[in-house]
Amino acid sequence: MSRLGDLIRTERVRQKMTPKQVAKKCGVSESFILAVEAGTRIIADDQARRILKTIGLREQTEADFTLDDIAATVDLQTVQPAMVKKPAAPKAEKVASTEETPAEGVAGSVWLDALSSVLKRVPVLNAVMKPVDHRLLPILNGRIEGANPEKVFYFLAPDDSMRGFRIHSGDVALVVPAQSPIDGAVMLVEYGAHRALRKIKKLDNFQVLLQSYDREYNAETLALSDVNFLGRCVRLEINL
Fold first, then answer.
1. What pLDDT does residue 155 have?
2. For residues 174 and 154, what is the distance between their CA atoms, to the nearest angstrom?
3. Exposed, middle or buried by CB within 10 Å (0-12, 13-18, 19+), for 130?
């Protein structure tokens, strides 16, 4: 069963709804819903959102996940089922009607614990290291890109000083911890009064070249002791 299918089935059962009831409300066949729950059918984000809303999930949850976040990320092809224990079967509840209002909500719902085991709300930080946004990323074997999920963050490129390296103002780079220079890598560094993304070239054991490229190539040679390496950029999301 896929993560999305597991989520749908668990919440459907919790809401005392049959696959046929969900299918009728969504305008699809019962076999369609069963295939989604079994993980044998891949569906579009808008279809996932419609099903999730039908079974009673609010647009915004108390954990600050939106249905867009859930639909776009919960059915991750790379997530291994063994990573997360399957949610326990919900205890029986007295329900007056299967037509519960969505506002009754998801507080305490079992799907929230399942999501928190495989997804991490990663902050997007600006040049002064203040959060301005977030992204949801999958946790694989307890790590994100091989790093502690609590230590990773996105950095919002403040200018076009790296556009020669295909990083433009407004793009966001995923940064994982690294306290020493990595030759050839783009890293987030602090030096002097600057905090910026720079491409690294190690010169020797004592000096490093910090490379940028706006309208023309620029390189600064600095002593290693004068540079604070905050992390390595492993992924880039461009701003179209």
1. 97
2. 4
3. exposed
User: In this predicted structure, what is the pLDDT of residue 102?
Assistant: 39
**Domains recognised in the chain with CATH numbers:** 3-120 (1.10.260.40), 143-237 (2.10.109.10)
- For tokens 């890293």, the residue is 187
- pTM tops 0.85: no
Cα distance between residue 169 and residue 220, in whole Å: 21
Task: Choose among 80, 109, 78, 84: nearest CA to 10.
Answer: 109
Residue 69 to residue 97: CA distance in whole angstroms:
29
pLDDT digits (tens, 9 = 90+) for 102-143: 333 444 444 445 555 678 899 999 999 999 999 988 888 889
Report the run of H or E that residue 133 belongs to, with start and end: strand 131-138
Interatomic CA distance for residues 212 and 199, integer angstroms? 7
Helix, strand, coil distribution of the chain in percent, nearest 5: 30, 30, 45
The residues, ordered by sequence, that sit 6+ positions from 216 with a Cβ below 8 Å of its Cβ are: none
Query: pLDDT by residue (tens digit) across 209-227?
Result: 999 999 899 999 999 999 9
